[in-house]
């Protein structure tokens, strides 16, 4: 216990320490650890200059550096709701990953919650939707946070895993096309943008443009992708999601496509619930094993 406390103190000090005469960093932990899973609030970089974004960090009890799992949250098309969104935590998913030995970072993105700033990932109207630009804007924000964490005393520099949800998964898919060397695998929970177009289930804004962007993301993609969708997802149905995954593959990407059982009343929120994470557990285990070639811890 004393060793764990010492390690925690060293992680916190290392994030806060500055060189004499330099401006203190605005990034790092902002409070003490709590429960569950040593939850701690952090501020991490984003693409908007020196504006930090809020994040939640979860870690295993064991001492020593851990591989990083970064969870990328969903968004909303409602411009008034975005600033009101609570700090994303994905506690059930984080608990699964912590049990597998990962340190889990869940950062906000710009214009969500209390972070503020400009909304950089807007795809535009339905007729002129630019899904490729939108996804890459999200991907840039993912990499800002991902690049900052490795090298902290509690985070390894290798073997990072990205897990995206909905619009966050769309950004993670765009990131696969950038072939980031520091990321070992990407897990997608129902990637896409502007499902429920105009408030209608199973209606997608400019689906042909979404397909074209997925195909473009597949070009040059070398990071293995696991594509998960619930049977009762009414935003991006299994049939449409399969076509989207095939478009990514046709561009050159590699994706294991899995349809999971129905989750609750709406499968879109599978990644956010304990039931959904239990349904996804076998596919998550396979993805993590492919990422490092080893067996994850039993739960």
What features would you highlight for this structure?
7 helices, Rossmann fold, single chain, 9-stranded mixed β-sheet, globular, 299 residues, alpha/beta
Strand order of the largest sheet: 1-2-3-5-4-6-7-8-9
CATH H-level superfamily: Alpha/Beta hydrolase fold, catalytic domain
- Return the average pLDDT rounded to an integer: 89
Q: What's the count of strands? A: 9
- What's the CATH class label? Alpha Beta
* Unreliable residue stretches: 15-21, 293-299
Any idea what the CATH architecture is?
A: 3-Layer(aba) Sandwich
CATH topology, anyone? Rossmann fold
Distance between the termini: 23 Å
Q: Which structural class do you get from the secondary structure elements?
A: alpha/beta
Describe this structure in words.
- The chain has 299 residues and is of the alpha/beta class.
- The chain has one domain: Alpha/Beta hydrolase fold, catalytic domain (Rossmann fold, 3-Layer(aba) Sandwich), CATH 3.40.50.
- The protein has helices spanning 2-16, 91-99, 131-148, 167-176, 207-218, 238-250, 274-292, and strands spanning 28-29, 40-44, 53-58, 67-72, 102-107, 160-165, 183-189, 225-230, 255-260.
- The chain has a 9-stranded mixed sheet with strand order 1-2-3-5-4-6-7-8-9, with helices on both faces.
- A hairpin with an 8-residue loop joins strand 2 and strand 3.
- The longest helix is centred in the C-terminal third of the chain and has 19 residues, at 274-292.
- The two termini are 23 Å apart.
- Residues 15-21 and 293-299 have low confidence and may be disordered.
């Amino acid at each position: 216990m004393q060793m764990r406390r010492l390690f925690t103190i060293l992680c916190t000090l290392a994030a806060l320490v500055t060189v004499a005469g330099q401006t203190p960093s605005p990034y790092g932990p902002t409070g003490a650890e709590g429960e569950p899973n040593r939850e701690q609030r952090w501020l991490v970089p984003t693409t908007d200059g020196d504006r930090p974004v809020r994040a939640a960090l979860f870690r295993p009890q064991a001492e020593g550096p851990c591989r990083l799992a970064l969870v990328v949250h969903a968004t909303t098309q409602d411009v008034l709701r975005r600033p009101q969104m609570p700090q994303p935590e994905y506690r059930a998913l984080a608990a699964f990953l912590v049990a597998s030995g990962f340190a889990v970072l869940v950062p906000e993105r710009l214009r969500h919650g209390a972070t503020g700033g400009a909304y950089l990932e807007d795809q535009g109207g339905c007729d002129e939707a630019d899904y490729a630009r939108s996804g890459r804007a999200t991907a840039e924000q993912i990499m800002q946070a991902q690049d900052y964490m490795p090298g902290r005393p509690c985070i390894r520099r290798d073997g990072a895993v990205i897990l995206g949800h909905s619009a966050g998964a769309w950004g993670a898919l765009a990131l696969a096309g950038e072939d980031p060397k520091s990321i070992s695998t990407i897990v997608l929970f129902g990637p896409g943008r502007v499902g429920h177009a105009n408030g209608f289930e199973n209606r997608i804004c400019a689906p042909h443009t979404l397909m074209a962007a997925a195909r473009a993301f597949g070009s040059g993609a070398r990071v293995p992708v696991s594509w998960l969708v619930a049977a009762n997802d009414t935003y991006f149905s299994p049939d449409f999601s399969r076509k989207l995954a095939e478009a990514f593959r046709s561009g050159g990407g590699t994706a294991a496509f899995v349809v999971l059982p129905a989750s609750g009343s709406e499968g879109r929120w599978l990644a956010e619930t304990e039931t959904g994470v239990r349904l996804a557990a076998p596919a998550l285990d396979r993805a993590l094993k492919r990422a490092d070639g080893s067996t994850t811890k039993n739960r």
